[in-house]
């Protein structure tokens, strides 16, 4: 009798540990959504145009597209094993950044728990798909507005450190709640240091492609190299 009494707390502890372990394997639904933060020179620029600059050269970016071929998830939890997985899509997922529309819904079951670190890796691009584009207008005169397109036409991997939502210190995924992971692309981070007035020859020195100021790895490459180096920092992902 004495022996069974001594073992009882140990058995209860093992059962509790087993239940906790089982709970940490239960799936929590996470839906990925996409959106874009528009950019307008003098509005969301970190430093607006100097006083007296005429409207010519002012930029507004309010449209965008993104193509992803895979998503990887790397998560570290306070309790339970760390979580790593990757998903390769049968065909690339196309995303309209200004409307948030996606060609396929992106919802995953991820083990629940309290995460102290999550990183999301997006592989952008696909066969015959432009990985990412940001579009808008640039003023070439007092009233003349010319289409402007930044085209990132290189397949790449974008690594994003996830953030918790407002008034949260950590990311908590629960089996009984759908968590939204908002992936945001801030166009201002890509365009913030672009001053078309400072170009040798000014705006008119930019090469046009079918009436559009195209900035890509083949056209207006000086601007492209400067902007492409800031592409990754334009991404944020917030778990809410």
Features:
mainly beta, 14-stranded mixed beta sheet, 3 helices, 46% strand
**Total of helices:** 3
Largest sheet: 14 strands, mixed
Termini, distance in Å?
Answer: 52 Å
Structural class: mainly beta
Residues in helices, as a percent range? 10-25%
Beta-strand level of the residues, as a percent range? over 45%
Please state the overall shape, judged from the principal axes of the Cα atoms. elongated
* SSE succession: HEEEEEEEEEEEHEEHE
Number of strands: 14
The mean pLDDT is 85
Gyration radius over CA: 24 Å
Uncertain segments: 1-7, 10-19, 43-49
Folded structure, characterized:
Strands 1, 2, 3, 4, 5, 6, 7, 8, 9, 10, 11, 12, 13 and 14 form a 14-stranded mixed β-sheet that branches. Strand 3 and strand 4 (83-96) form a beta hairpin. With 240 residues, the protein is mainly beta. The chain has helices at 2-23, 187-191, 221-228; strands at 27-37, 39-40, 59-77, 83-96, 106-111, 113-124, 132-139, 145-152, 156-164, 171-173, 179-186, 208-209, 212-215, 235-239. The protein starts with a helix and ends with a strand. It contains 3 helices and 14 strands. It is 15% helix and 46% strand.
């Amino acid at each position: 009798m004495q022996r069974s009494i001594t073992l009882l707390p140990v058995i209860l502890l093992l059962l509790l540990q087993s239940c906790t372990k089982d709970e940490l394997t239960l799936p929590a639904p996470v839906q990925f959504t996409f959106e874009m933060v528009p950019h307008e020179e003098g509005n969301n620029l970190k430093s607006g145009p100097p006083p007296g600059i005429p409207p010519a050269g002012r930029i507004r970016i309010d449209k965008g597209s993104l193509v992803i071929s895979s998503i990887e998830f790397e998560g570290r939890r306070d309790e339970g094993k760390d979580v790593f997985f990757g998903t390769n899509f049968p065909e690339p997922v196309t995303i309209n950044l200004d409307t948030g529309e996606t060609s396929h819904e992106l919802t995953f079951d991820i083990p629940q728990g309290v995460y102290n670190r999550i990183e999301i890796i997006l592989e952008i691009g696909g066969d015959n798909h432009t990985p990412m584009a940001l579009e808008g207008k640039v003023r070439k005169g007092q009233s003349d507005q010319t289409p402007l397109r930044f085209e990132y036409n290189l397949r790449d991997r974008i690594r994003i450190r996830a953030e918790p939502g407002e008034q949260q210190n950590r990311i908590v995924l629960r089996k009984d709640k759908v968590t939204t992971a908002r992936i945001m692309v801030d166009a201002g981070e890509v365009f913030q240091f672009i001053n078309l007035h400072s170009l040798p020859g000014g705006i008119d020195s930019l090469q046009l492609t079918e009436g559009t100021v195209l900035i890509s790895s083949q056209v207006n490459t000086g601007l492209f190299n400067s902007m492409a180096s800031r592409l990754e920092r334009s991404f944020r992902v917030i778990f809410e």
